[in-house]
Amino acid sequence: MNAHVPNSGWPALVLNADFRPLSYYPLSLWSWQDAIKAVFLERVNIVAQYDKAVHSPSLEMKLPSVVSLKTYVKPSTHPAFTRFNVFLRDKFSCQFCGTRDELTFDHLLPRSRGGHTVWDNVVAACSPCNLRKGNMTPDEAGMYPSEMPFQPSVQHLHRNGRLFPPNYLHDSWLDYLYWDTELEP
What we know:
By secondary structure, this protein is of the alpha+beta class. About 20% of the residues lie in helices and about 20% in strands.
């Protein structure tokens, strides 16, 4: 496990009131300043702390490493259609060749031929595959996505997000995250 804190400095993992992360990818993190502000505004409970403390003339406070919201935030059931969410749904890989480089959108039914920018018509594609497919349908190009596009649930995106753990996971976060945390020393 990483023993040092990342350059962004002492982030706090933010959990919902049910002690589940608000999101996995990107991982729900707040700066230490935002976490302390939320503590003083009584919006969160401190679940775990770093050994590092901040001081004022009248107060010393250890920096929170894990906080939980006092009020439950109901997760959205339908994720927003965004480029990032399409890439996350498709596990950040080209649906034609599998590479993870130079990802773009591909419309299976091209926009110029009446295709829409919606979950069921868009896949992640690398630039070379997107250019090769061009203005053709999958049948015309002889290029078929490894998985047909679909509208994912928030749970599906969370599941996929767990496949991409961040470079930094503090030990105090591990009880609340569900990744394979066996990292090389």
